[in-house]
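Title: Comparing notes on inverse folding

I've been comparing how different people in this forum approach sequence design from structure. To keep things fair, I'm posting one structure and asking everyone to reply with a full sequence. Here's the target:
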């Protein structure tokens, strides 16, 4: 069914066998589970963990739960912030105060089964079993891949650009009424945001990037378009705002028009700088990977982002070393510790997400990792010496970096492809990581 033929979207919601019930919000169980999950995933967020614990100790969560079930809860305005991106631009994000943030974390966990049932088979991002590897492999399963043109689309500022009125009309049946719908209405239709302690009209803010329910809602919003593009014969996958469609060369114009038209009908804008058309045999990118003639490597933008973050960190730590009079050894150790946390996570949380667990399992070889390892070593030496020259290798030899915790991505790649146990043992032994 084409989107333009859907008529009243609210009357066309797909049937659901699951009920998105929030009744358990009146009990301790789901709140405690959310706190435990957050504490395991983000053990260094002690301030937030403390906020959540105080909320539960005071029993405020049960009052909030009762208000949600009675349709009375009105979330506080989220705080607006802007994050610096690797390309120099800024990303608008939002964060609720602790009570509402824990509420939405808990609700997100409770809505997962109904969302997983309602989501399209072509986009299951942020849902159980819907990781990046599953999305990429679903495309690679097409035996005719070498003969097809790859169309890649990226939606600009997707989460914040979603028309929430349209989204609410298109939600699956399990989300369309009762306390679930009342809570979504209260959160998404409230224009207020907190900017520096002043409550203002935030304008169009969509599902609010950075808030707990945003990924789930963004996954569900385009499921009708997913079905239409796949129904047009494309080998198709979407991971939130990242879309790839592989089609025979003669059908490229038709499928490209279809995707662009449907996105435009939703008020969404294609980010042309991240979108592309690759003829059969040419490389194409998806989810930070590059596919070239049957080989999966890192996309150039992935390499640039990691290098840019490493360089920013090195500059910051060099300034800290010079200002505080810190020793070179301590500054290098701090650089490598922070780098390792970004690359490898922290023991006990690596199964959730880290750079390495996202990228390394999909790569067919370590070739692109060599340059990244060299960049990290160069920046570590810059922290120690303030220079990026060949002479710094002699001043800060490899053994010194290894002793301070440097774990090359190439080494981690081979360990991961040997076995999960070998990877875990390598990182635990070499990376000097802890929950502190």
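Reply #1:
Here's my take.
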């Amino acid at each position: 069914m084409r989107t333009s033929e859907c008529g009243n979207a609210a009357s066309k919601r797909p049937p659901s066998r699951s009920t998105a019930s929030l009744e358990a919000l009146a009990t301790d169980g789901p709140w405690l589970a959310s706190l435990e999950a957050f504490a395991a995933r983000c053990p260094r967020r002690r301030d937030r963990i403390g906020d959540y614990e105080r909320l539960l100790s005071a029993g405020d969560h049960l009052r909030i739960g009762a208000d949600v079930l009675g349709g009375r809860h009105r979330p506080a305005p989220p705080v607006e912030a802007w994050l610096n991106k690797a390309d120099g631009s800024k990303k608008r994000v939002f964060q609720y105060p602790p009570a509402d943030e824990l509420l939405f974390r808990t609700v997100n966990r409770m809505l997962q089964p109904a969302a997983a049932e309602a989501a399209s088979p072509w986009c299951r991002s942020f849902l159980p079993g819907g990781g990046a590897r599953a999305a990429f492999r679903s495309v690679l399963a097409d035996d005719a891949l070498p003969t097809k043109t790859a169309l890649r689309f990226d939606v600009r500022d997707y989460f914040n650009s979603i028309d929430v009125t349209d989204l609410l009309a298109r939600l699956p049946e399990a989300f369309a009424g009762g306390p679930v719908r009342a809570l979504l209405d209260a959160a998404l239709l409230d224009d207020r945001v907190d900017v520096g302690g002043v409550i203002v009209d935030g304008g169009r803010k969509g599902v609010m990037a950075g808030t707990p329910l945003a990924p789930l809602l963004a996954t569900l919003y385009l499921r009708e378009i997913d079905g239409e593009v796949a129904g047009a014969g494309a080998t198709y996958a979407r991971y939130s705002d990242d879309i790839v469609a592989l089609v025979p060369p003669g059908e490229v114009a038709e499928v490209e028009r279809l995707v662009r038209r449907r996105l435009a009908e939703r008020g969404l804008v294609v980010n042309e700088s991240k979108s592309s058309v690759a003829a059969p045999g040419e490389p194409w990118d998806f989810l930070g990977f590059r596919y070239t003639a049957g080989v999966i490597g890192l996309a150039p933008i992935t390499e640039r982002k990691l290098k840019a973050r490493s360089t920013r960190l090195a500059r910051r730590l060099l300034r800290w070393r010079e200002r505080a009079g810190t020793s070179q050894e301590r500054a290098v150790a701090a650089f490598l510790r922070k780098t390792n946390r970004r690359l490898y996570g922290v023991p006990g949380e690596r199964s959730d997400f880290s750079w390495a667990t996202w990228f390394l399992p999909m790569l067919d070889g370590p070739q692109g990792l060599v340059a990244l390892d060299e960049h990290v070593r160069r920046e570590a030496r810059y922290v120690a010496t303030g220079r990026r020259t060949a002479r710094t290798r002699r001043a800060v030899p490899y053994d010194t970096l290894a002793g301070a915790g440097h774990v090359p991505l190439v080494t981690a790649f081979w360990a991961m492809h040997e076995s999960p146990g070998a990877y875990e043992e390598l990182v635990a032994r070499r990376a000097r990581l802890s929950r502190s």
